[in-house]
Design brief:
InterPro entries: Ankyrin-KH/SAM_domain, Ankyrin_rpt, Ankyrin_rpt-contain_sf. It holds the Pfam family Ank_2. This protein has twelve helices and no strands. The protein is an all-alpha fold. It folds into two domains: 111 residues, Ankyrin repeat-containing domain (Serine Threonine Protein Phosphatase 5, Tetratricopeptide repeat, Alpha Horseshoe); 103 residues, Serine Threonine Protein Phosphatase 5, Tetratricopeptide repeat. Helix 2 runs antiparallel to helix 3, helix 4 runs parallel beside helix 6 and helix 6 packs antiparallel against helix 7. The radius of gyration is 19 Å and the shape is elongated. The N terminus is likely disordered.
Length: 215
């Protein structure tokens, strides 16, 4: 048997049948694709394996299926990110639990030196950050340009996440002062930061200036 025509028609041109099943969060399609011999090592044009796809989207049930069939927890995408890093970036605690139970490494770094806590921090995923810290992730690790995850969360304006990470860190903290803007961190921006990074810092500064002007 093959995947249904609907499933096959909805997958993107660079995705294999397991990527398509992952994209649709379908255990039925994933199970059938595995029976049909689809490869868990197949990659799309951005280097995602099927496990990367379900990790990023937070589909723990399908991730468990792939892992039981031998999916590589340390596979790297085009940015050298592992499935665990993508799960952290999405704040998907259940997927993180599943990956770690199957041996995924919390010490994995992408090509910019960003670790799992950095991925959680830059999107403000406090619950994921707490889970990672509780399971041994290092809050003092600095990415390529010298920022800890707590410093990165602060720069993005994620107060709660920054406080959790900085409380666990031995590195200098960037504490929030409600009466002042969140200052940009010294040095260059992290090379893994998106174009929204400086905009987030600028927006925080403008909001603070507007507040001060009305006082």
């Amino acid at each position: 048997a093959c995947l249904s025509g609907v499933a096959m028609s909805e997958q993107s041109g660079d995705d294999g049948p397991l990527h398509a099943a992952a994209l649709q969060a379908s255990m039925e399609w994933a199970t059938q694709a595995l029976k049909d011999g689809a490869s868990l090592n197949e990659r799309n044009t951005i280097g995602y394996t099927p496990l990367h796809r379900v990790a990023e989207d937070g589909i723990a049930e399908v991730a468990e299926l792939f892992l039981k069939h031998g999916a590589d927890t340390e596979a790297r995408d085009y940015n050298e990110a592992t499935p665990l890093l993508l799960a952290a970036g999405g704040g998907h605690v259940e997927v993180l639990e599943t990956l770690v139970r199957h041996g995924a490494k919390l010490t994995a770094l992408d090509e910019f030196g960003l670790g799992c806590l950095h991925y959680a921090a830059e999107s403000g995923h406090t619950a994921a950050a707490k889970w990672l810290l509780a399971h041994g992730a290092n809050p003092d690790h600095e990415e390529e340009s010298g920022k800890t995850a707590g410093q990165l969360a602060h720069a993005w304006g994620f107060k709660e996440t920054a406080e959790v990470l900085n409380a666990a860190s031995l590195a200098p903290s960037y504490h929030f002062d409600e009466s002042k803007s969140a200052e940009a961190l010294p040095g260059d921006l992290p090379k893994g930061a998106t174009p929204l990074f400086p905009a987030a810092v600028e927006a925080a500064a403008k909001a603070s200036e507007a507040t001060e002007a009305t006082e």
